[in-house]
Design brief:
Layout (H helix, E strand, L loop, with lengths): L1 H51 L3 H9 L6 H13 L3 H14 L4 H13 L3 H14 L4 H13 L3 H14 L4 H13 L3 H14 L4 H9 L1
Helix pairs in contact: 1-2, 2-3, 3-4, 3-5, 4-5, 5-6, 6-7, 7-8, 7-9, 8-9, 9-10, 10-11
């Protein structure tokens, strides 16, 4: 009986030690997470303050000193590197953000900033096509795809994408103006007049629309 009692005592003691260890470990982890969260929030706060003062290098350092590789940090670094005109690093950070959150549209809109500044229009087009694949009715992406195709004189595809915008926003100035330009390029002046007129109704001060209408 004595041996049994000793064994039970040892087991109870062991269980108590294990439970205390788990509680202590949980407390340490919770404290560490809270500390990390507070540190992250403080770093973002400092970064915003430095950005407001146009001290972009310090705004970047406030985040890189965290030595973290999260979506939100890469998204913000992409923007800060873009502001500091380091377009290569900006692209790298935005791509990391896209990799971290593959369905992110905001990261892709960020990515086109350095890509377009670098003149990498093929990549810009691919990114916008990815956006409309994720969000078929995204008016900004559809319009910009239409604009790129128009610049390449691919009027069929240009009209296809700008028409998607006009279905949702029939009185949109930019889309009506672009539709008019597409039709003029296709020698469809009668149809073009309808869109140019709409653009002028939206913005009666538009010199570009006035000039196009006079040519018609």
């Amino acid at each position: 009986m004595l041996i049994v009692e000793i064994i039970n005592f040892i087991n109870r003691t062991r269980n108590t030690i294990v439970m205390k260890s788990i509680i202590i470990l949980s407390f340490i982890l919770s404290s560490w997470k809270l500390s990390a969260q507070q540190t992250s929030e403080a770093a973002f706060s400092k970064s915003y303050s430095f950005e407001y003062e146009t001290q972009y290098a310090k705004a970047i350092t406030a985040l890189t000193d965290l030595h973290l590789d999260s979506y939100q940090i890469n998204l913000r670094l992409g923007w800060l590197y873009y502001l500091s005109k380091d377009y290569v690093k900006s692209e790298q950070c935005y791509r990391k953000a896209v990799t971290a959150e593959p369905s992110s549209i905001e990261a892709r809109f960020g990515l086109v900033l350095p890509l377009s500044t670098l003149g990498n229009w093929n990549s810009v087009l691919l990114v916008y096509l990815e956006i409309v694949k994720l969000d078929p009715n995204n008016s900004i992406a559809n319009y910009r795809i239409g604009s790129i195709y128009f610049a390449r004189k691919d009027y069929v595809n240009s009209k296809l994408y700008v028409s998607k915008v006009l279905k949702l926003y029939p009185f949109d100035y930019d889309s009506n103006l672009l539709s008019g330009k597409i039709l003029i390029a296709q020698a469809k002046n009668i149809e073009a007049k309808k869109y140019i007129t709409k653009a002028l109704e939206y913005n009666p001060q538009s010199e570009e629309a006035k000039t196009l209408l006079k040519k018609l």
